Amino acid sequence: MLKNFKNKDFITTVIFCLIVFGIFIACILSPKEEISLSERREMAQFPEFTWERLLSGKFFEDFEDFASDQLVLREPLRTFKAGIRYNVLQRLENNGIYVKDDSAVKIEDKLNQSMVESNVKVWQNAVSKYFADANIYYSIIPDKNYYMSNGFYPHMDYNAFNGIVSATKPQNAVNIDISSILGIEDFYSTDLHWKQESIIDIAEKLASSMGATIDGLDKYTTEELNNFYGAYYGQSALPLKPDVITLLHSDVIDSAKVYYWGATQKGFERVEGQIYDEQGKTSGDMYNVFLSGMEGLIEIENPKCQNGKTLYLFRDSFGSSIAPLLLSGYERVVVVDTRYVMSNVLGMIEGLDLTATDVLFLYSTTTLNNVVMR
Amino acid sequence: MVFSSIPFLYYFLPIVLITYFAVPRKAKNYVLLCASLFFYFYGEQLLVLLMLSSALVDYSMARIIEKFRDNKVIPKIALAFTLLFDLGVLCYFKYVDFFISNFNAVFGMEIPLLKIALPIGISFYTFQTLSYVLDVYRGDVEAQKNFFTYATYLTLFPQLVAGPIVRYKTVAHELLYREHSVSKFSQGVFRFSIGMGKKIMIANMLGEFVNAFSSIQNPTVLLCWLFAAAYSLQIYFDFSGYSDMAIGLGKMFGFEFNENFDHPYTSKSISEFWRRWHMSLGSWFRDYIYIPLGGNRVKFPRWLLNVFIVWFATGLWHGASWNFVLWGVYFGVFLVLEKLFLGNLLKKLPGFVSNAYVIIVVFVSFVMFGCMDYLGGFNQGLQHIASMFGFGGLPFASTNTLYYLRDYAVVLVLAIIGSTPFVKNLANKFTEKYPIAKWAQPVIVILIFLLCTAELSDASFNPFLYFNF
Question: What is the ipTM of this complex?
Fold first, then answer.
C-alpha cells in the first residue's frame, strides 16, 4: 500500500475520489441554507417529488437549482472565484460588478427604452387621475456607473435615457437636476444607495425647487450603524470593507408620526411605525432601517410643521433615506412605491387624503430602466 | 445534465463510479446502461424511449442483415428500413420546421410550424447507430447479439450528447473485454480535468463576451474581430473540452475513444483544418457519404457534386437553418479551391501566412455559424462580416472596445496558447528532463477542480434584481 503512494496515478486517483466523493457526502450531510444574505434571496431546497414533475422535467430543473445553491462552502468558493477573476485573470468585473477606488459599481449598459417609457407613463396616469392641481416635479438619481464609468466601463446612453424621460413625463412636470450635485463619494462603497448624511444638499435642492424650506445640517445629530455590507458586497463576492450607515436625527424626524399602509382582508389599513426601523438595524440588509425597506405606501406626519403643505413622494428605495430630510418642509409627506402598490389603487384607499401641494417623482436610472412600475 | 455541472460532478458521477466498480464484471455494462438511460432521462424524460427505439430497430436490422447476409434482397431491405427510420426520425425532430418554413416561402403557403423540441444528442446518436448498421452491412463488423450490450454502446453517457461519434468497431472488443487499471483511470481523470478546465475556465468565460456582444452599443471594427475570435475560440474550447471530458470518462470506465480534435487552429490549409476539427464527424461523412459517392475517383463535375453534397450535409447536420448550410458550403468552396490550386500555393507560403489564412477563413465562417443566435439574424451576420473588413462604416476602435479587450485579454491569450500544442509539448519536454514533474498531474487535477467548482458555485448566482426594494 505504501508503495502505491509513490505512484502518481494512484495519487491522482485517490485525490479525484476524495474530491468527488468528499463533496458528494458533504453536500448530502451538510445543513441546508435557507437564505443567502449576500444575494438577498431564499436558497433552493430539495425539490418536491411527484411523478408529474419528474416526467415534465421540472423536478430535475429544480434539482439543478438545489444542487447549485446548496453546494458545500459555496460562499468561500464564490469569493475564491471572484479573487481568481480579478487578480489572476485580470477580469474587470465579476457578476456585472466592478470595483474602482474601493467602490463596488454595477455595470448598467443596456437602455431598455420601452421599460423606461412605460414606467414614466405611470407618472402620467397618477398625475392625471389624482394630482391635477398639484405642482409636479421629477428628479432622476444617476446610478454609480454614471460617475465611475469615465467612458471606459460600459454604460448606458444617459442622454438618451434623459431624453426618453423628458419626452414621456407629465406635461407640466418640472425637472430638478441633481446629477451635478451628486458624486461617487455620496454613495455607499458596497451598495447602490446614497448615504443619508451626504444628501442634505440634495434634499435642499429638491425642497428649494419645490418652494419648501427644510432643516439645514446644523439641525441634525447622528447615529452610526457599523458593518453595513451592501448589496454589491455579496454580488461582487470580494472581501470589501463594510460601510457605516449614519442615521440623521432631528426634532422633526424623531417626533414624526409614521403610518405604514398595508392590504388586509378588510381592505387597506395603516399601522404605526417609525422613520428608522429598529429591526432593520440588525437585519440582513441594514438599509432597511430607512422606512422599513419594501413598503408600498407610508404616511408621515410632521407635528412640528403647520404650513398645510403635503408632499406626495413617488420613489424607489433611494427615497427611503431622503424622505425624512424633506419632512421638515411639509406638514405631511406621503411616500409611494409603485413597485409594490399600483398607482391607480390610491383612490380606493379609504382614509388616505390625496390632497397634495407638491408631487415629486424621484427615481434612480436603475429602477426606471429595469423594474416594472404599476 | 451537462458534465460541467454540480449535479453531474458531485451527485451522478460518484454514484455511478461507486456502483460500477462495486459490481462484478458481468454487471458493469448494465450499470453503464442504466446510468446512461438515467442521464438521458434527466434532460429529455420520455424521449429516452425514442433513443431506445432507434437502438432496438438498428439492433434488429443489423441482426437481420447478418443472418441473411447471403441473400441478395433482405439485407438491402433491412438497411433501407434502418436509413428510413433513423433519418426519418432525425428529419422529423430536427428538420421538419425547416422544411415547412422553406416550403411556405417557396410556394407562398402558411402551413403552421410544428415547433417540435429537438431531443438532445439526436444528431450524434443517430449517426452513431447508422454507422453501426452500415458497418455490419459492409461486413466490417459482426452484429452484436446482445441487445443490452448494443444499447450500452449507443447510449453510453460519456459520448451520448456531444460526441465524439464513436464507431461500434472501435469499442466492440471493449464492450465485453475491457480492462480497468489505476493507470487508465488516472489518465481518464486527468483528461477529464483538462476538458473541464477548457470548458469552464475558457469557453464559458469567452461565452460571456459573446452573449453580451449584441447589446453592446456602438461596435467597432476591432470589436467585431474580437467577437469573431472569441466565438471561434469559445466553440473550440467548448467542443474540444467536452470531447476531452468524454474521452476521459470513457477511460475511467475502460473505453478508448478516438480523438476528436487535434489543435485545428494550427492548420495551414482548410483541408488540414478539417482533418483536425471534429474528426469523428469528418471521418463519418468521408466513410459513409463521400467515398460511397465515389470520392475524388470520379470525373471533375461529379467530384464537385460529391463535395457539394458532403458539405451541404455537414452544414445541415449542425443546424436546421440556412446559415449552417452556407457555413458548410463555404468550406466546400475553399476545399475545392485548395484542391485546384490554392493548396499548392499555400505550401509555398511561410507557415504563419498560411495559418493566418486559415484563421481568417474560419473566424468568418463562425460568424455565419453563430449569426442567428448571437447577432440577431443572417443579415446581421453578413453586416458583421462586412464590418470586420471595414465595409460597415464603423470606426476602427473606441474606449468601449478597449474595455472589452482589457477585460478579456488574459483569457484570450490563454485561449490562443491553449489552442496550440505549446503547453503539451512544453510539459512533455519538462517531464522528460525532470521526471519529478510527473507529480504535477495530481496537483493540476486539484487546481482545476478547485477553479471549476468555484466558477460553478456562482453559476446559480441570481440576486434579487434591483435589490430587495
Answer: 0.91
